[in-house]
Each structure stands twice: as structure tokens, then as C-alpha cells.
Amino acid sequence: MAHSPGSASPIVPLTAAEPGVGLVPDVSARAATATGHANAVRRMFDRISPTYDLLNRLLSFGIDRRWRTHALDELARDLPEGPLVDLCAGTLDLSAAMHARFPGRSLFSLDFARDMLVAGRSKAASAKLVVADAMRLPLRSGSVAGMVCGFGMRNLAEPSAGMREVARVLAPGGVFIVLEFFRPTRLPTRVFHAVYARVVLPTLGRIISGDAEAYRYLSRSMQGFLSREEFAGALRDAGFEKVQAFDLTLGIASVVRGVRPHGALTLSPGAAPAPRGAP
Ligand SMILES: C[S@@+](CC[C@H](N)C(=O)[O-])C[C@H]1O[C@@H](n2cnc3c(N)ncnc32)[C@H](O)[C@@H]1O
């Protein structure tokens, strides 16, 4: 249903959440069991929500704040008027920064892990919280001016299906920004990621959250994800144009930006690379 940015709420009613299965997501099996993967990811994030912020700051040495600012600089470029969405919003760090950067705009913070949203509630009091799956957005087609997804896309059972959903809800000229740890391709970054993901992440995760398995999953999800170049290609296949990618801090994290075209969306179903299995 068409909906012009800036008019009434773009939100449509939610469907009930599905019951969860397994405790720790299996990255390699995600394409085969999309619902099982999604439920396991959701339960895992609900479980680690009490210590998520503390670990985030420690694990990134606070650099994530600068990465978020950079992501919003890219969002601000040629951004049409209308509502904004923080996709896979977690504990609302990006929502808080978006509220400060774009005051006066409607802001919807969407995540399927309710406890993550609740844990961050006080950071962005004006954001409307939406508990929903990123692959089935309860948002009207063409209703959103800009969407940001911070460290969320690699958790989706089918990232290319999520991209197509984003393209559907964005208004013509709408901007999609992805801040992510893509699978590194250059040797120094590969070495850094390997040590960090296999040693630092699970060790600190175990000490602070008591949940080494969850942090092992997070490291496997980085190594099993698309490279920055593959992701940019998948965005083009999902119909985005003007796709650009920027490395942050020597490529440890990256920002990818895509724009929803003004004309009809041209999709290339099946052309997008599937997520790689975990090694
Ligand atoms: C690593 S956290 C990132 C949170 C936040 N964006 C940030 O920058 O700190 C990933 C978030 O994505 C959410 N998520 C993963 N898959 C999702 C899906 N299919 N639909 C909605 N949220 C999802 C998780 O619940 C979690 O809160």
C-alpha cells in the first residue's frame, strides 16, 4: 500500500511471535532452517540483553560511538523528508544518536528481541519501539525516508530477503545504511578478526555475561558473513542504486550505503550470494 513519507504512522499491525527453538544459533544451518535460526538468535539476544551495553563498550574500546556517527553522516546525505527506522535496534544506541541528529522526525526502533529494546528504553524515549522480524517488516511500502541497520544484517537467516524488505518499505530516494563487521578479505584485518573473534570475544563474553556460547556465535557470524564487496553486490541485486562502501578503522567495521531508486525496483532474485557457512 502506497504511503507518503511524513504522513500518518507507517506501522501496520504485528503478527504474533513464533515459539523459540534451540538455544544457540547455528550459522551454517541458517538458510535451511530460517525460522529456527531466527528464534535461536532472538532468544540469545534476549538472554544477553542485561550485559550487552557494557560488553559492547569494552569490546570496541568505545570506538563504536565514532562508527555510529560516521553511519549517520552517510544517512544525512540526500536524505528525503519522512520517518526514520533503526533496524535491529538492540539497546537503542543508534536510535539515541538518530534522535539527537534528526530531531523532529518520527523514529521507529525495530528489533525482534523485546528485552534488548526494553534494556535501552531510557536512551531514546521518543522512539516508537516495534517488536518485529526484520525479514517481515510491519511497515507500509514506500513509507520510510531512511533506515539504518547496525550490526544486525549478519544475524538474519536470509540477509538478501531482509534487503528486499528494506527496499520495499523505503520511499523513492530513501537511504539505507548498514554498519557491519563484514567478513574481512585483507590479510591484516583477517588476522585481527581471527584473534579478536576466537579469543577476545568469547573470553570477555564469558567473564561479563557468563555466556561464552553467545559470544562464540557472534564471532562465527562475522566469519561466516558476506565480505563488504559481496554485501554491496547483494544490495544492488535487491534493487538499490548508488551503492557505496566505506571502511572504518582499517576495515574492522564498514558502512555500506544504498539508495532506493525513484522508478520501479528491479530485483535480481537468486543472484545475491547466499551467506557463507561458518568455518
Ligand atoms: C549485535 S545487535 C546490534 C544492536 C544495535 N543495532 C547496535 O548497534 O548495538 C543485533 C540485534 O539484531 C537483532 N536481530 C537479529 N536478527 C533480527 C531479525 N531477524 N529481526 C529483528 N531483529 C533482529 C537482535 O535481536 C539484536 O538486538
Write up this protein:
With 279 residues, the protein is of the alpha/beta class. It is 39% helix and 16% strand. Helix 2 (52-60) runs antiparallel to helix 7. It has one domain: Vaccinia Virus protein VP39 (Rossmann fold, 3-Layer(aba) Sandwich), CATH 3.40.50.150. It has a seven-stranded mixed β-sheet with strand order 3-2-1-4-5-7-6, sandwiched between helices. S-adenosylmethionine binds at residues 38, 41-42, 45, 56, 88-90, 93-94, 111-113, 116, 133-135, 150-152, 155-156.
Total strand segments: 7
Helix content percent band: 25-40%
Low-confidence stretches: 1-8, 12-24, 271-279
Rg value: 17 Å
CATH architecture: 3-Layer(aba) Sandwich
Q: Biggest sheet: strands side by side, in what order?
A: 3-2-1-4-5-7-6
CATH superfamily: Vaccinia Virus protein VP39
What is the domain total for the residues?
Answer: 1
CATH topology: Rossmann fold
Order of helices and strands: HHHEHEHEEHEHHHEE
The biggest sheet, with number of strands, parallel, antiparallel or mixed sense and barrel status, is: 7 strands, mixed
Kindly report the oligomeric state of this protein.
Answer: single chain
Average pLDDT metric? 84
* Broad structural category: alpha/beta
Described by the principal axes of the CA atoms, the overall outline is: globular
- Bound ligand species: S-adenosylmethionine
- The first-level CATH class name: Alpha Beta
